[in-house]
TrEMBL record:
The chain crosses the membrane at residues 338-357, 364-382. This is CHASE2 domain-containing protein. Residues 38-356 form the CHASE2 domain. The keyword Membrane applies. Pfam families: CHASE2. Keywords: Membrane, Transmembrane, Transmembrane helix.
Length: 827
């Protein structure tokens, strides 16, 4: 109950922190979006989008440039050593005539002439007459704020009769941003009122004349000024300087972004002097929208644009050409409204929230980078295909801030939880100890404590596994669904994992950690293992035993729930009786987390009793036989020798029975040992017992064979092996000990290392081995022993059982000149 309360409050705390994180992220996104962009960052991103939004320029637009060449040529023709500006207005009259003769559709004269010509009073009349004769021509107006005008905006029109002669007057105002880059315009500006006027932009005026829309109602692109703003402007009326009642506030309407087609110089340019002299004819100018303006250095206005740098400014006349081009090709770009920016910035943040909740750190980082890239791509797609320029900096900033904040909070909560659990385990069971030497700051000390706990937990796991392997019966540990997650040596032996994986494996080359790899048993489901051995026995009890019926239902249906209980079953392969018991594996949360399955061989005790009876019966029969023979041969001169041999055979037979019984029924005590050294020690014992003249110090041990095992039982088995081989080889030459290693693929295609120790006896005659080799070929009986057994066979069975219970194998090999035993264990 206490654990459940702790879990509940921990979940509540985590949920509260998560809600604060999400709410803070959304509030920050909305707040940054309400600022309508992050200034320079958003402008740079918008410029990037504009540069990727280029297009082919219209061939219907031509710029007649007042360039350096034109100024130089006019200066020469006037006999001057420098260019004179402004030029006489008769010059512009001649140009308009040339354009009219070439068939220009509309002419926009981007030359501001607010004052009358002083040097030649007839110049204005000549130009005005040319404008009237060569219509349509658009002339620019200018605006300014007079000193002391209290925000009043004054309009400057072309001087005298020039304003009346033009087909339209138009403004050429731009709206540079705080960084000086021209990104937007208003297609209409002016002052509402009786004597006021709303002026088209020069590009709109030329488009209107060229499309013959003058005086008609048509749809003007751009974002309209707020209706409230327009109504307020109409109410703020006052008396103007000329006595007329006009709107005081200047109205800016139909706001739009300039749809730049390319960098400066994208449109067709002709030099003013070439057109003036007739070098550019009707083929180049017929049906064209012609813009006349200054491009020479220091002449006219130039602006930085998203398509250019400060080193390559764009003339104002070319900016007008870009706007006109957008009107002709119906390409318009609008700034997104405030609510549009908020929605656009919220979408990637909302998409990132489930990513933060469900993803791993690497996945989250990759997802955040992908969302940021998609954010930028969507910005460009909206500009290109929806004509809307959004400001994505708010979402980008929030995504960049969210990941480190999420990572920091995740690490903080993880460390708090780990240390809290470590403190609780140390306080409750006392198994975990604090590290002896700690250093560094708080984080470093916590990491050292966690590392110490991890090592102690591995030691505990190793102890549990070794304890399982020491059990004399089958033990399986499963999860709640019945999947086997842990098994011991008896389980691997029963379910025929051949060769069985080691219970007490060698020490790895690096470190002292035990090897406990996945086995073939772990790869199976409990239902498959039980079906392979006990299905027939369970089916026989289907009607009589409710638990047998429940087990069969579990094995037949994956959805069936495993139940606790016990039942006696028989192995379908060997017929051995077993007690099958399944109990729930209950953890501290007070509900089943899996199952503990035990299989106790009920014939184990019976077999031990049978084997003991066989030993006693054999001893009784053989002792009686030897005594009868002794009585019959009392007069024989060979009596003493015969008695000695008979008693020796009897002792060997008894020792074989006892060794075999001891190897099968003893409880093994696991200790760390070196098998090669243990083999050398037993070789020395046999040398001493049989008085062999061998100098064992000359036998080099090039490599150790570390393992876990029972040193007493292993010593007995190795002593038997050495004695048998010495007897067969004749004990002539000194043997050799070698340690080798091989590799192969085990279960689940994992590379497995095997270590082998060889004890090799050189021989000159292998006839003795040929007489005895059958004892090394007989398999160990699983049930009752045969009636007649050679002593050496019993001893070899004892060796086999010992090695098998240590998860190893043993076999005798022979060549023409040697006899040896190979003992192999898997590392």
């Amino acid at each position: 109950m206490l654990w459940q309360m702790q879990q509940y409050w921990r979940r509540q705390r985590a949920r509260r922190h998560w809600m604060i994180f999400v709410a803070g992220l959304l509030v920050l996104t909305i707040g940054l979006s309400l600022m309508n962009g992050l200034g320079r960052v958003d402008r740079l991103l918008a410029d990037l989008s504009a540069r990727l939004d280029g297009r082919r320029v219209s061939s219907d637009i031509v710029i007649v440039a007042i360039d350096d060449d034109s100024i130089a040529e006019f200066a020469k023709s006037a006999g001057l050593g420098f260019g004179r500006w402004p030029w006489p207005r008769q010059t512009h009259a001649v140009l308009l005539s040339r354009l009219h003769e070439a068939g220009a559709k509309v002419v926009g004269l981007d030359i501001f002439m607010p004052e009358e010509e002083r040097m030649d009073p007839l110049a204005d009349t000549v130009l005005a007459s040319s404008i009237r004769q060569n219509n349509p021509v658009v002339l620019p107006i200018s605006t300014y704020q007079p000193a002391g005008g209290d925000g009043w905006i004054e309009v400057l029109k072309p001087a005298g009769e020039l304003a009346d002669s033009a087909e339209q007057l138009a403004h050429i105002n731009l709206i540079p941003d705080p960084d000086g880059i021209a990104r937007s315009i208003n297609l209409r500006e002016g002052r509402d009122g009786a004597a006021g006027g709303i002026w088209n932009h020069m590009a709109l005026a030329m488009w209107e004349l060229g499309q013959q829309k003058k005086g008609q109602q048509y749809l003007i692109p751009g974002v309209r000024a707020s209706r409230n703003v327009i109504d307020a402007i109409k109410k703020l009326e006052s008396e103007g300087p000329d006595g007329h009642v006009i709107g005081r506030e200047w109205l800016q309407d139909y706001h739009m972004l300039i749809p730049y087609a390319g960098p400066p110089g994208s449109y067709q340019r002709y030099s003013y002097i070439d057109v003036y002299e007739g070098k550019v004819g009707a083929e180049q100018l017929s049906g064209k929208y012609v813009l006349v303006g200054g491009t020479a250095l220091g002449l006219g206005d130039t602006f930085a644009t998203p398509m250019s740098s400060t080193d390559a400014l764009m003339p104002g006349v070319e900016i007008i050409a870009n706007v006109l081009d957008g009107l002709l090709q119906n390409v318009h770009r609008y700034p997104a409204p405030l609510w549009g920016n908020i929605i656009f910035n919220l979408i990637p943040v909302l998409l990132a929230i489930p990513l933060f909740y469900l993803g791993q750190p690497r996945t989250v980082l990759s997802g955040i980078v992908l969302l940021m890239l998609l954010d930028l791509i969507c910005m460009w797609l909206l500009r290109r295909f929806a004509s809307v320029q959004v400001l994505p900096a708010a979402s980008l900033v929030c995504l960049m801030l969210a990941y480190p904040l999420w990572s920091w909070r995740r690490l903080e909560l993880a460390m708090q939880q780990i240390m809290a659990e470590f403190s609780r385990m140390r306080r409750e069971n006392g198994f975990f100890r604090d590290p002896q030497h700690v250093y560094g700051d708080r984080l470093e000390r916590n990491l050292q404590a966690f590392e110490s706990a991890a090592w102690q937990l591995r030691e505990l796991q190793q102890m549990v596994r070794q304890s399982l392997d020491e059990l004399p019966y089958v033990m399986l540990v499963t999860d709640a669904s019945g999947q086997v997650i842990l098994s011991n040596t008896e389980a691997r032996r029963l379910f025929r994992v051949n060769p069985p994986l080691p219970t007490m494996a060698f020490e790895p080359a690096l470190g002292g950690e035990e090897f406990f790899g996945d086995t073939e048993v772990q790869a199976h489901h409990l239902s498959a293992l039980l079906s392979s051995h006990f299905l027939r026995s369970l089916l026989q009890q289907y009607e009589q035993s409710a638990y047998a019926k429940a087990l069969i239902d579990f094995m037949a249906e994956d959805s069936s729930v495993l139940q606790a209980g016990w039942v006696e079953v028989n192995d379908g392969k060997t017929g051995a009786p077993y007690l099958l018991k399944i109990v729930p594996r209950v953890m501290t949360i007070e509900r089943s987390q899996g199952w503990l399955v035990t299989l106790v061989n009920l014939s184990g005790g019976q077999r031990s009793e049978i084997q003991r009876d066989q030993v006693l019966r054999y001893l009784q029969e053989n002792v009686c036989e030897q005594l009868i023979g002794l009585e019959k041969n009392t007069e024989s001169h060979r009596c003493e020798k015969w008695v000695r041999q008979s008693l020796a055979d009897l002792v060997m037979q008894v020792r074989g029975f006892l060794d075999f019984e001891y190897a099968q029924t003893s409880i093994y005590i696991s200790e760390k040992l070196d098998l090669s050294e243990l083999l050398l020690h037993e070789l020395a014992r046999v040398c001493a017992e049989q008085d062999l003249p061998w100098d064992l110090s000359q036998i080099p041990l090039t490599e150790s064979l570390m393992m876990k095992g029972d040193p007493q039982i292993l010593s007995k088995a190795l002593h038997t092996v050495v004695s048998l081989l010495v007897r067969i080889s004749g004990g002539g030459k000194m043997p050799v000990i070698k340690v080798k290693q091989r590799q192969d693929f085990g279960a689940a295609q994992k590379m497995v290392r095997h270590k082998q120790v060889y004890l090799i006896f050189p021989v000159t005659d292998i006839s003795a081995y040929e007489q005895k080799k059958h004892i090394f070929k007989q398999p160990v009986p699983q049930e009752t022993l045969p009636a007649e057994i050679e002593p050496e066979t019993l001893q070899w069975w004892a060796v086999n059982v010992t090695m098998t219970r240590h998860a190893g194998t043993v076999r005798v090999e022979q060549t023409e000149r040697s006899i040896g035993v190979m003992i192999e264990f898997m590392v």
